[in-house]
């Protein structure tokens, strides 16, 4: 696949939907690899004898297509390229730049005189807002793209002189954006690149979406949420923080809520709700937010050893998402488990901690798992090398081993 490193699970996923009538929508944070995925897919098509003039590849962030911002022009641009009855592959990158793109895409998908297979990407979940998903209902499949897993990071960043532990420390410190692999491995260069990604998310995806005039407020709120990755966050807490920062006290909770929503929609943070295990219901209060790339967090805040617990938690949270789980904070009466992971009929519990060498930490981490009286798998993940064997049905694993294990 040339010099691009394959993101196998995503390519497999795309190929499993190839040539059916569903529109393939690839979503995820800016620079997490969506465009590269389309290019890998294009290479696959070329290697499998699809003629190049039957692959229509458009990136709407390029100046070439700057005047195509309206769906009728976009529709005409595509129709003019369809000159025969054979199958065409449409690879449409950052399509949210075109207003009402969904009308054109929907039409192209259902017209009977042409044969098209459509792939689109977008860096904002507004791409699939309710009116669009209603129009396309049942006609699209969403492929959610995340930044690099630790396994993928090892493929991207060779770092031959580093031990596995040192490589893992780089992953925690510089994060999981594919672009980081191509840069000189020093703080200054990498953090400049990550701040660039962060700023483009703020400007293009959040300010533009919320119509915010108060970028100072937005910036403070974003920094607060990102610094507090893995902590419980509420509108009240944010409001208190902003007031302490000398902001006007009347920051409305609706403003805060709309900014938080915009942050989620730009995939810069992911929200983790609590789940009441006993009552079997999702709870709407006391949610946590995890920043989607620890490198962006460190570029903004600096990296301190005192943060490592939260950073490890963040890494595990996204690994569970990559493995196809829905993830919650597990609540059992007054005790809490870091992650309650659910996939079809599989349920698992995870506690994440730096080390269990301290007896009191060990007791605390085990207590909340022991409290839950069901027989689902329970695991404590830590950076410890030596392990007590399983303890009352609770399994101990090293975090690096967990990240590198074979998954299905």
Structure notes:
The protein is α/β, with parallel strands linked by helices and about 400 residues long. The protein is built from 15 helices and twelve strands. A seven-stranded mixed sheet has the order 7-6-8-9-10-11-12. Helix 7 packs across helix 12 (about 295-300). The mean pLDDT is about 90.
The class by helix and strand makeup works out as alpha/beta
Overall mean pLDDT score? 91
Number of strands: 12
Strand content: 15-25%
Widest beta sheet: strand line-up: 7-6-8-9-10-11-12
Q: Shape from CA axes?
A: globular
* H-E order: HEHEHEHEHEHHHHHHEEHHEEEHEEH
Give a brief outline of the structure.
The chain has 408 residues and is of the alpha/beta class.
Give me some keywords for this one:
408 residues; 5-stranded parallel β-sheet; alpha/beta
Helix and strand arrangement:
Elements: H1 8-16, E1 23-27, H2 34-47, E2 55-59, H3 71-81, E3 87-93, H4 101-110, E4 115-122, H5 130-135, E5 140-144, H6 150-156, H7 164-174, H8 187-210, H9 215-227, H10 235-244, H11 253-265, E6 269-276, E7 281-291, H12 294-301, H13 308-322, E8 326-332, E9 335-343, E10 346-352, H14 359-371, E11 377-382, E12 394-398, H15 399-404
Parallel strand pairs: 1-4, 1-5, 2-3, 3-4, 6-8, 10-11, 11-12
Antiparallel strand pairs: 6-7, 8-9, 9-10
Helix pairs in contact: 3-4, 7-12, 8-11, 8-12
């Amino acid at each position: 696949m040339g010099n691009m490193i394959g993101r196998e699970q995503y390519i497999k996923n795309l190929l499993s939907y190839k040539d059916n009538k569903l529109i393939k929508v690839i979503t995820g944070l800016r620079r997490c690899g969506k465009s590269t995925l389309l290019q890998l897919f294009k290479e696959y098509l070329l290697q499998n004898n699809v003629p190049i003039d039957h692959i229509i590849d458009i990136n709407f962030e390029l100046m070439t297509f700057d005047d195509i911002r309206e769906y009728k022009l976009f529709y005409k641009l595509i129709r003019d390229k369809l000159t025969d009855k054979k199958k065409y592959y449409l690879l449409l990158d950052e399509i949210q730049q075109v207003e009402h793109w969904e009308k054109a895409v929907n039409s192209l998908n259902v017209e009977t005189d042409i044969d098209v297979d459509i792939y689109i990407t977008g860096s904002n979940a507004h791409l699939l807002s309710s009116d669009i998903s209603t129009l396309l209902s049942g006609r699209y499949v969403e492929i959610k793209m995340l930044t690099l897993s630790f396994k993928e990071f090892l493929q991207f960043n060779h770092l031959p002189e580093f031990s596995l532990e040192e490589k893992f420390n780089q992953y925690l410190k510089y994060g999981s954006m594919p672009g980081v692999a191509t840069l000189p491995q020093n703080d200054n260069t990498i953090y400049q690149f990550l701040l660039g990604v962060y700023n483009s998310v703020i400007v293009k995806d959040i300010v533009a979406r919320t119509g915010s005039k108060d970028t100072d407020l937005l910036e403070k709120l974003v920094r607060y949420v990102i610094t507090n990755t893995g902590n419980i966050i509420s509108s009240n807490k944010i409001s208190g923080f902003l007031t302490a920062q000398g902001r006007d006290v009347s920051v409305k909770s609706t403003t805060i809520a709309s900014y938080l929503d915009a942050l989620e929609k730009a995939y810069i943070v992911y929200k983790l709700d609590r789940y009441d295990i006993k009552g079997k219901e999702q709870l709407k209060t006391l949610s946590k937010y995890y920043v989607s790339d620890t490198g962006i967090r460190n570029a903004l805040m600096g990296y301190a050893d005192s943060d490592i617990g939260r950073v490890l938690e963040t890494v595990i949270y996204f690994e569970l998402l990559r493995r196809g789980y829905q993830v919650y904070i597990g609540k059992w009466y007054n005790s809490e488990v870091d992650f309650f992971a659910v996939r079809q009929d599989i349920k698992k519990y995870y506690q994440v901690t730096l080390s269990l060498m301290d007896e009191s930490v060990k007791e605390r981490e085990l207590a909340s798992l022991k409290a839950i009286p069901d027989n689902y798998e329970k695991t404590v993940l830590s950076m410890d090398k030596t392990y007590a064997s399983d303890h009352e049905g609770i399994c101990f694993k090293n975090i690096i081993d967990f990240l590198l294990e074979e998954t299905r």
